[in-house]
Amino acid sequence: EKINTPFDAMGEERLHQLVDAFYSRVGEHPDLAPIFPSDLTETARKQKQFLTQYLGGPSLYTEEHGHPMLRARHMHFPITMTRAKAWLTCMSEAMDEIGLEGPFREDFFARLGLTAQHMVNTPENDE
Ligand code: HEM
């Protein structure tokens, strides 16, 4: 019998809506836009794959790109605490936009907060 995962609880369609709402904010954010590509289509596609597996769904990211090694993949980009906070603000607003609420949202957001902190690789005044 199939065990329900957070991915099942959220559903693919809402996860994709969340990622699209998130990257429209990232693309407009003064602290984030400068380090992202101007066309975020491919970034969003990879993030959909990644968050699918992060939430316990099929390993779409790993199947196409190999082990995520997220911190290593972020080393090319100067990620300060300010940028981590900005990333999380965009995510929180995207969650508001799609109406994600309750304990599911809180758990998901708390987990993203830990992952975001782990990506910080640059002191504030050193970028
Ligand atoms: C890729 C920034 C946090 C998952 C990227 C890219 C940038 C970036 C600039 C490259 C985009 C591209 O070239 O297409 C940041 C910043 C963060 C952050 C400033 C703030 C802490 C996170 C977190 C996650 C994440 C918390 C996961 C929950 C990814 C994934 C990719 C990515 C899956 C695609 C990697 C690939 O190229 O295969 N991020 N990121 N990032 N990020 Fe982040």
What do you see in this structure?
- This protein has 127 residues and is mainly alpha-helical.
- It has one domain: Globin-like.
- The chain contains 7 helices and no strands.
- Helix 2 crosses helix 3.
- The radius of gyration is 15 Å and the shape is globular.
- The termini are far apart.
- The structure holds protoporphyrin IX containing FE.
- Protoporphyrin IX containing FE binds next to helix 3, helix 5, helix 6 and helix 7.
- Belongs to the truncated hemoglobin family. Group II subfamily.
- One of its GO terms (molecular function) is metal ion binding.
- This is Globin.
Number of domains: 1
Query: Terminal Cα separation, in Å?
Result: 50 Å
| Cofactors, ions, other ligands | protoporphyrin IX containing FE
Oligomer: single chain
Number of helices: 7
